[in-house]
Amino acid sequence: QVQLVESGGGLVQPGGSLRLSCAASGNIFRIPVMGWYRQVPGKQRELVAWIISGVSTNYADSVKGRFTISRDNAKNTVTLQMNSLKLEDTAVYYCHARVTSLTRSADDYWGQGTQVTVSS
C-alpha cells in the first residue's frame, strides 16, 4: 500500500502565492509519474500539472506560466508552486502518483485533497 500526504493549502488573495507539497510513502519501487489535479463542486477532476521521471512536465493551459511543478526523486515528494493565483484557481487539489511497487505492479494513488481558496 502507498500513502500520499499533502500539505500547503489555504486561503490567499488574488495575485498571491501558495506552495503545495505531497509526500509518498509505503510499498514503492519507483514512481514514474507524479502530479496534481483539482476539482470544484459539480465538475470533473482536472489535470493541473504532471512531472514524468522527474524531468518532463506538462501543464493545463489555464496555469501555464503561473504554476511550477517539481519533484525530489530521492524523497518521493512533489511540489506545486502556484503564483499569480486567480479566483478560478479555487478548488480542492489532489496529489496523484503512478507507483510501481516492490513486486513490480503498477497502480494509481491519490492524496486526501487540500483546499485552495483564492478570495479577496
Structure description:
The structure is a single chain. Helices cover 0% and strands 59% of the residues. The protein starts with a strand and ends with a strand. The mean pLDDT is 95. The strands form 2 sheets. Strands 2, 4, 5, 6, 9, 10 and 11 form a 7-stranded mixed β-sheet that branches. A 4-stranded antiparallel β-sheet has the order 1-3-8-7, with no helix packed on it. The chain has 120 residues and is mostly beta strands.
What is the element layout, followed by pairings?
Layout: E1 2-7, E2 10-12, E3 18-26, E4 30-39, E5 46-52, E6 56-59, E7 67-72, E8 77-82, E9 91-100, E10 106-110, E11 114-118
Parallel strand pairs: 2-11
Antiparallel strand pairs: 1-3, 3-8, 4-5, 4-9, 5-6, 7-8, 9-10, 9-11
- What percent strand? over 45%
Low-confidence stretches: none
Arithmetic mean of pLDDT = 95
Distance between the termini: 40 Å
Total helix count?
A: 0
Q: Share of helix among residues? A: under 10%
Over the alpha carbons, how many angstroms does the gyration radius reach? 14 Å
**Number of extended strands:** 11
* 3D shape: elongated
Main beta sheet strand tally, sense and closure: 7 strands, mixed
**What structural class is derived from the secondary structure elements?**
mainly beta
Order of helices and strands: EEEEEEEEEEE
